[in-house]
Amino acid sequence: MRYAQGGGFDAAGRARREQVRLRAVDLIDAGHSNVEIANMLRVTPKSVSLWKAQYVKGGREGLVSKGHGGRQPYLTDGQVRELAAALDEGPAAHGYQDDQRWTLARIRDLIQGMFRVRYKDVSTVARLLDRAGYSWQAPARRAAERDEEKIAAWREESWPEIKS
Predict the structure, then answer these.
(1) CA-to-CA distance for 79 and 12, rounded, in angstroms?
(2) Are residues 51 and 14 in the same domain?
(3) 69 falls within a domain
(4) Is the same domain home to 85 and 37?
(5) Is residue 141 one of the residues assigned to a domain?
(6) 14 and 53: one domain?
(7) Rounded to an integer, what distance in angstroms lies between the CA atom of residue 125 and that of residue 108?
(8) Is 138 among the domain residues?
(9) Taking Cα atoms as reference points, which of 62, 51, 44 lies closest to residue 27?
(10) What is the pLDDT of residues 98-143, one digit of tens each?
């Protein structure tokens, strides 16, 4: 998973990278050069140089992973799973009888009702849904009221008059 799907390393990936940094410290203490360490660990010499500076400044604790960057999400993973289950129940189960489609505004209201979290902008809800694996869907069927004969007649009779 990379940035479009939620970004960066997961906890296991961050732990692996932390082990590489701590291994680099052991090699620095053993007297190896930045280039040698980079070749051994399959990283760039610049990374080793940055890690060395962090090590000098803050010791081994300076190289410990600080977790993922950016703002903490408003919803936990468990809450996102609860939201997904609620969305799968459909809009009618949540009081939307008139139209059986989820809109971003409706989902935003559902989130507020379930978790007391208010997203100001529906585009943030769209990103949340994207990360949760949902995608925008177009209705697969046409309106029940659609009359193909009337549409064809309109195209043949009315449209040429309007067009000219």
Answers:
(1) 21
(2) yes
(3) no
(4) no
(5) no
(6) yes
(7) 6
(8) no
(9) 51
(10) 888 899 999 999 999 999 999 999 999 999 998 888 888 776 677 7
The alpha-carbon radius of gyration of the chain (Å, integer) is: 27
Q: Alpha-carbon distance 155 to 159, whole Å?
A: 5
Which residue reads 């379930």 in tokens? 114
Q: For 38-93, write each residue's pLDDT tens digit.
A: 999 999 999 999 999 999 999 999 888 877 777 788 898 899 999 999 999 999 99
pTM score > 0.85 for this model?
Answer: no
Q: What is the residue range of 14's domain?
A: 3-63
Kindly report the number of other CB atoms within 10 A of residue 21's CB atom: 21
* 45 and 93 together in one domain: no
